[in-house]
Amino acid sequence: MAKLKVVTLDGKPVKELDLPDAVFASALNSRLIHEAVVAYRAAGRAGTHAAKNRSDVRGGGKKPWKQKKTGRSRHGSIRSPLWKGGGKVFVPQPRDYAYAFPRRKRQGALRSVLSEKLRDGKLVVVESLALPAPRTRDLIAAVGGLGIQGTALLVDEPVHRHLELSARNLPGVKATLATALNVVDLLAHDTVVLSEAAVQRVSEVLSP
Q1: Cα–Cα distance measured from residue 136 to residue 165, given in angstroms and rounded to the nearest whole number
Q2: Which residues contact 137 (CB under 8 A, 6 or more apart)?
Q3: 3-state secondary structure of 198
Q4: With bands split at pLDDT 50, 70 and 90, how would you rate the model's confidence at 154?
Q5: What is the pLDDT of residue 115?
């Protein structure tokens, strides 16, 4: 069982915390992580693209000319795809790109990324992420006190309102719930900062 120091927002060590191997000692599974990222992004697609087929184009209800004895091609509507201004063939229609992704595979991908963050020294556990007031400068000072370089994902359970408001205006920093963790956010941020409560909740949810 891995041990990790629990620090305050000033970076001062308070105690050591045992991290369960079942969650934080998983092997790196790049293929599973890739599948989870693809599924997450597919579910996030708007799917609102659309174009008009011949039934959607205005007009064309009348046959342009009689069927025979005109010397011209036979046509039933000026909104046929053969005509300029007519409908298009095989046009995209609004659809949902999300597909079912097994919960166990999603949790396995999260365990793999969290374990890799721990091995790289990019996982920080703090005693609490509660801020005294919703001020971005307080969060900047806290991130600096933890010695974080680059982007950071702050995970709490539940997310303190002051933390949420302070992180909202800070580029490269995001606050999220322990139960709302996803592979894309973990990969998009250099360092993951978890509160003690978040570690406990993550361990409960991701335990196989």
Answers
A1: 8
A2: none
A3: helix
A4: very high
A5: 96
**Which of 93, 92, 97 shows the shortest CA–CA distance to 39?**
97
Give the mean model confidence (pLDDT) for residues 29-49.
Answer: 97
Say what the pLDDT of residue 159 is: 82
Element (H, E) at 126: strand 123-126
Q: Considering the domain 2-45+99-206, what is its CATH architecture? A: 3-Layer(aba) Sandwich (3.40)
Least confidently predicted of 93-97, 156-160, 175-179: 156-160
Q: 124 has which bridge partners?
A: 193
Domain boundaries defined on the chain: 2-45+99-206, 50-93
**Calpha distance 175→156 (Å, rounded):** 8
The pTM assigned to this predicted structure is 0.85
Q: Which residues pair with 7 in a beta bridge?
A: 13, 126
Kind of pairing between the strands at 13-19 and 2-7 = antiparallel
Question: How far does CA 151 lie from the centroid of its chain?
Answer: 16
